[in-house]
Amino acid sequence: MTTPKLKAGILGATGTVGQRFVLLLSNHPQFVIHSLGASPRSAGKQYELAAKWKMSTPIPEPTKFLVLKECKPQFFLECDVIFSGLDSDVAGEIEIEFLKADLAVFSNAKNYRQDPTVPIIVPTVNPLHFNLIPYQRNLHSLKKGFLVTNANCSTTGLVVALKPLLDAFGPIESVIVTTMQAISGAGYPGVASLDIFDNVIPFISGEEEKMEWETLKILGNLNEESTAFNLLPETKVSASCNRVPVIDGHTECVSIKFKNRPPPSPEQAMNALTNYVSLPQHIGCYSAPEKIIIVNNNNDRPQPRLDRDNGNGYSVTVGRVRPCKVLDLRFALLVHNTVLGAAGSGILNAEIALAQRFIKDGSPKVLL
Question: How many CA atoms lie within 13 A of 29 on its CB side?
Answer without folding.
Answer: 7
